[in-house]
Amino acid sequence: MNILGLVGSPRRKSNTDLLVSAILDGASKNKHATEKVYLYNFKIEPCIDCKACKKGTYQCILKDSMAKLYPKLEKADVIVFGTPLYWYGPSAMMKLLVDRLRPYTASKRMKGKKVVLVVPSEEGADACNLTVGMFNSSCKYLEMNLMSVLLPKASERAEVKTQPQTLKEAFTIGKHIK
Asked: Do 113 and 132 meet the contact criterion of CB atoms below 8 Å apart?
């Protein structure tokens, strides 16, 4: 099984990155192939609503880093979306990526894929309702299965390192991916 971890935080080795890593580490214990991608290393343009992706070869016409990310998304059986909570939504980079999943609405190439959502935030789980709702609706629209959600309270740099139970929960989520 191929598991792709998407880190939508500009901070490396901090909460979102550490939690996605823990999930991938748990998954690798079951011999799953894992890959982690830092979205801030890519140039992702906003969707321009041209609708070219909804016909023909179902390809986006924009020429940016999504050309490198689309094959990774298609190869993955499970996608881990990791984003800090910014103004009660995902980070801008994560939102850009989600907006650019539009070719899959017509092609159905995401159908049946499993999704794990990780959203560390300053205020905790209750503040994440809108973000979880957005991902839940997006997964349903793309016919993907949102299988697990982790919403720890953590906003200071690498704060989850002081929360062994949270890291263990992330590891366990990964270990139970089937």
From this structure: no
- The Cα-based distances of 73 to 66, 97, 109, 121, 154 in angstroms read 10, 11, 9, 25, 27
Say whether 94 sits in a helix, a strand or coil: helix
List of E strands, 39-86: 78-82
pLDDT > 90: what percent of the chain?
Answer: 96
Low-confidence ranges of the chain (pLDDT < 70): none
3-state DSSP helix/strand/coil percent for the chain, to nearest 5? 45, 20, 40
- pLDDT, one tens digit per residue, over 117-140 is 999 999 999 999 999 999 999 999
Q: What gap in Å lies between CA 88 and CA 154, rounded to an integer?
A: 14
pTM of the model: 0.95
Cα separation of 19 and 154, whole Å? 11
DSSP per position, 102-170:
THHHHH-TTTT-EEEEE--BSS-GGGGHHHHHHHHHHHHHHT-EEEEEE--B--STTGGGG-HHHHHHH
